[in-house]
Amino acid sequence: MFLPICRPIQPPRACALVAALFGLVTVFGGELEMADLSLITPDLTVPVCQEGIPAAGARVAQTTAGWTGTAAHHSLYLPSDWKPGTKFPVLVEYPGNGNYRNKFGDVSTGRVEDGRLGYGISGGKGFIWVVMPFVEIADGTRRNAITWWGDTEETKRYCIATVPDVCARFGGDEKRVILTGFSRGAIACNFIGLHDDEIAKLWLAFVCHSHYDGVNEKWPYPGADRGSALERLKRLAGRPQFISHEVSTTATEAYLKQAGITGRWTFEPIPFRNHSDQWTLRDIPARRKLRDWLGAVLAQ
Fold it and tell me: Is the pLDDT of residue 32 over 60?
């Protein structure tokens, strides 16, 4: 593949923008550097999550029955084309770890209110979108965990209760529920989503962006080892996964090859340096591939 090189005599930002549009690298002063997402203008703005009654085009905070009176909650978005009596596929998203900021200005708060991946995938139409919490038990109450899993069993219980409730109340199609996640949430697609047979049966397919359960055994929680991850992976049972990562998916591809488990994996390296879910808010080839993949999955 021919990679055009940006010469130092050209204006640096203009040169970087050309590279970014083609998903390529920039070279300044002999240093290799991936393009930054900030060079691409978003074509989507994620709705602010507010208190209120669920309605078409609105994103609201909700608490599932059984957790009423606690601080545990999820966010719910009904698509702009939503109307009662119509069935919609459902995107369930787990957010990344909070308290994160890198040298490129990428930020992750860990809050369900700040999830973006599902909205970027759908463009705000055709899908119900839920950002699910990791629930911790602390100070005598249940609340959303900003980092890692909280109480794994409580997190799993909240999800198992919430998915059918959303489907029953708002027209979600229980046979077309897609589990998605960024960073911590990408690991959670398998760590939580395939934690046992009860929760594993909820999903039609998975979108995992940036990190993957079992690739890094040094994460600071029980069950991060590959033996445990492979037991969870067996519950995938041939369902499709779209696996993306900034810069390269090589490590995940190698891990899955060594795992010896046959899967329907689609790998998509995102040609930007950012550890972020904001690439789905931009009209780039990777997002178009993801939407095409999802359309094919739903059509099967």
Answer: no
Spell out the alpha helix ranges (H) of the chain. Answer: 12-21, 117-122, 152-170, 184-191, 197-200, 226-233, 250-259, 285-299
CB hemisphere CA count around 60 (13 angstroms): 14
Q: Which CATH architecture has domain 41-299?
A: 3-Layer(aba) Sandwich (3.40)
The DSSP call for residue 134 is P
pTM of the model as a whole: 0.90
Res. 261 pLDDT band, cuts 50 70 90: confident
**Beta-ladder partners of 27:** 32
- Give the CA diameter of the chain: 63
Domain ranges (residues) in the chain: 1-35, 41-299
- Eight-class DSSP state of 65: T
| pLDDT tens sequence across 101-121 | 999 999 999 999 999 999 999
Sign of CA dihedral 210, 294, 73, 142: negative
